[in-house]
């Protein structure tokens, strides 16, 4: 190949790269824009919350985007006439002869199929808006993030298809409170081919350049394009199931090279959080209600974990297992981040319970166990089915500590390993017990974190902390009577302290039952998980 041919080839490749980059940028920009269907769903909710004056502006804006609001928007759900009859009436009134002169089959399908089905769907979803964090005002709606709006819209807005004068259309509808708090029906329609029409609004020059660039790009880079997009799509989907930080450990050379049994050990702090009495709580719920509740709950609990750079390893029913691992920092840093996340989770739970009270649901509580130690990141399963996980004593201990929060009626319990790492931090803590948990021979001290408590409770625990911890130490040495006196002083300072009440009962048992005290070694052996 002569020099001239090489120069021509280099220029051709450079032009191809430049045009390909422009095409990819254009496509990415187009894909990042909200679809017309997505806009139709969002506008329905905004329309319900707007003032009457602003609703007219929304109608005009919607028409520019080929989104058409049905007549009868804001129609009350309950009335003497059925919903289908009322919708048929407003369509007839709004479109007059055009509606009544629809082809016989289309009009029959509208009156006998579409509208009755719509009525049944609406009546079945009257209270669905209560299962999500539905905004109380337009201001709240506008301040939500894109993901939060999408979650609410996809949870509340349904879609069906109908035919109008031979054209297929999408009908979006939802049952939500309007600006005045009245539960009403809102509907909008979009043509089936509206996305294609929207795309064709680009200038002919842009279309021509796109077509030329795409042809050149596909000719020279067809396999590269397919492979890169496929890998990107797989990676994006995979990251929804396996956190990016986790992938960096078990597949730092690409997810396509993940192997069964791949493992890496490191020091971590594990956080395990579980909902109190979830089984009894879920007994009165329908399957969809359970999923809505858990997704809403997880959304609130995930945020503090993400804020403190934790990795959510898995959801086990209603439980969350998160790992805090920062190889570039010392172990103290990851322990502090885990405790900070647990405290923020309690504040977030209070906020979530406030929403539940407003919507007629009972408040919930949860417990969190935290332990620091070595763990293994890896893949388990078989060649046909595998999953990523974190294994080790630290995981088992964190789970057991979460169980102890039920016994001591508190929300956060940490191990002595974690306490040692955060002792220089200004967390509010006190020693609760020395225990041997199920599945572990080595005993450990456990501590309660109470930064999140109400001020009166924090003051009471701080006031009695020294006496309480001294009494626990005396109790561990087997001096039951002296320990009893100390705990009686604690209960005077803090009458509602669950931990003190437990020790008062334990001391009485030991004093009155010598057999129970026989062989005492200062450790509480737990027999339940």
Give the topology, please.
Elements lengths: L2 H30 L3 H14 L2 H13 L2 E3 L5 E2 L6 H13 L1 H4 L3 H21 L13 H6 L2 H11 L1 E7 L2 E11 L5 E9 L2 H6 L4 H36 L4 H7 L12 E13 L2 H5 L4 H21 L3 E6 L2 E6 L6 H28 L7 E16 L4 E6 L1 H15 L4 E4 H7 L6 E8 L7 E6 L5 H22 L3 H14 L4 H15 L1 H4 L6 E2 L4
Parallel strand pairs: 9-11, 12-14
Antiparallel strand pairs: 1-5, 2-5, 3-4, 4-5, 6-8, 6-9, 7-8, 9-10, 11-13, 12-13
Task: Give an account of the 3D structure.
By secondary structure, the chain is an alpha+beta fold. The chain has four domains: 3-32 and 202-239, no CATH class; 36-199, no CATH class; 244-452, Nucleotide cyclase, GGDEF domain (Alpha-Beta Plaits, 2-Layer Sandwich); 459-529, no CATH class. It is 55% helix and 19% strand. It has 20 helices and 14 strands. It has helices at residues 3-32, 36-49, 52-64, 83-95, 97-100, 104-124, 138-143, 146-156, 194-199, 204-239, 244-250, 278-282, 287-307, 331-358, 393-407, 416-422, 455-476, 480-493, 498-512, 514-517; strands spanning 67-69, 75-76, 158-164, 167-177, 183-191, 263-275, 311-316, 319-324, 366-381, 386-391, 412-415, 429-436, 444-449, 524-525. Strands 6, 7, 8, 9, 10, 11, 12, 13 and 14 form a nine-stranded mixed β-sheet that branches. Strands 1, 2, 3, 4 and 5 form a five-stranded antiparallel β-sheet that branches. Helix 2 packs antiparallel against helix 3. The chain starts with a helix and ends with a strand. The model is unreliable at 28-33 and 194-204 (pLDDT under 50).
Uncertain runs: 28-33, 194-204
Counted beta strands: 14
Fourth-tier CATH superfamily name of the largest domain? Nucleotide cyclase, GGDEF domain
The major β-sheet equals: 9 strands, mixed
**Structural class, from secondary structure content?**
alpha+beta
| Approximate helicity band | 55-70%
């Amino acid at each position: 190949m002569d020099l001239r041919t090489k120069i021509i080839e280099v220029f051709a490749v450079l032009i191809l790269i430049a045009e390909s980059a422009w095409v990819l940028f254009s496509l990415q920009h187009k894909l990042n824009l909200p679809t017309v269907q997505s806009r139709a769903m969002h506008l329905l909710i905004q329309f319900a919350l707007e003032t009457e004056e602003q609703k007219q502006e929304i109608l005009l804006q919607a028409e520019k985007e080929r989104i058409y609001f049905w007549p009868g928007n804001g129609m009350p759900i309950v009335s003497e006439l059925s919903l289908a009859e009322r919708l048929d009436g407003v369509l007839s009134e709004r479109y007059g002869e055009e509606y009544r002169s629809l082809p016989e089959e289309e009009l029959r399908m509208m009156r006998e199929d579409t509208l009755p089905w719509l009525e049944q769907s609406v009546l079945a979803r009257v209270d669905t808006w209560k299962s999500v964090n539905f905004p109380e005002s337009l201001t709240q709606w506008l301040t939500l993030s894109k993901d939060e709006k999408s979650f609410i819209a996809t949870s509340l807005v349904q879609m069906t298809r109908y035919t109008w004068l031979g054209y297929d259309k999408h009908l979006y509808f939802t049952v939500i409170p309007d600006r005045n708090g009245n539960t009403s029906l809102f509907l909008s329609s979009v043509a089936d081919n509206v996305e294609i029409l929207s795309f064709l609004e680009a200038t002919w020059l842009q279309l021509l350049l796109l077509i030329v660039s795409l042809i050149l790009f596909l000719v020279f880079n067809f396999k590269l394009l397919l492979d890169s997009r496929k890998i990107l799509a797989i990676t994006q989907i995979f990251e929804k199931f396996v956190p990016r930080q986790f992938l960096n450990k078990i597949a730092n050379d690409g997810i396509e090279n993940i192997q069964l049994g791949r493992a890496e050990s490191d020091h971590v702090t594990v956080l395990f959080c579980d909902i109190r009495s979830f089984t009894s709580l879920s007994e009165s719920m329908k399957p969809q209600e359970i999923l809505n509740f858990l997704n809403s709950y997880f959304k609130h609990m995930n945020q503090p974990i993400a804020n403190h750079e934790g990795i959510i390893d898995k959801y086990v029913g209603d439980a969350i297992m998160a790992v805090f691992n920062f190889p570039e920092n010392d172990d103290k840093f990851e322990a502090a981040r885990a405790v900070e996340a647990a405290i923020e989770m309690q504040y977030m739970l209070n906020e979530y319970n406030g929403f539940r009270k407003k919507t007629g649901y009972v408040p919930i509580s949860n417990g969190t166990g935290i332990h620091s130690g070595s763990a293994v990141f890896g893949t388990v399963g078989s060649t046909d089915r595998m999953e990523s996980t974190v294994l080790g004593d630290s995981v088992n201990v964190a789970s057991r500590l979460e169980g102890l929060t039920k016994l001591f009626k508190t929300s956060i319990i940490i191990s002595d390993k974690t306490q040692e790492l955060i002792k220089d931090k200004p967390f509010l803590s006190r020693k609760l017990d020395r225990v041997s948990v199920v599945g572990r021979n080595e005993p450990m001290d456990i501590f309660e974190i109470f930064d999140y408590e109400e001020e009166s409770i924090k003051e009471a625990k701080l006031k009695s902390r020294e006496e309480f911890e001294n009494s626990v130490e005396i109790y561990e040495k087997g001096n039951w009577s002296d320990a009893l006196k100390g705990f009686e002083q604690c209960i005077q300072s803090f009458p509602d302290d669950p931990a003190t009440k437990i020790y008062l009962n334990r001391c009485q048992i030991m004093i009155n039952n010598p057999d129970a005290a026989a062989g005492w070694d200062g450790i509480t052996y737990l027999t339940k998980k």
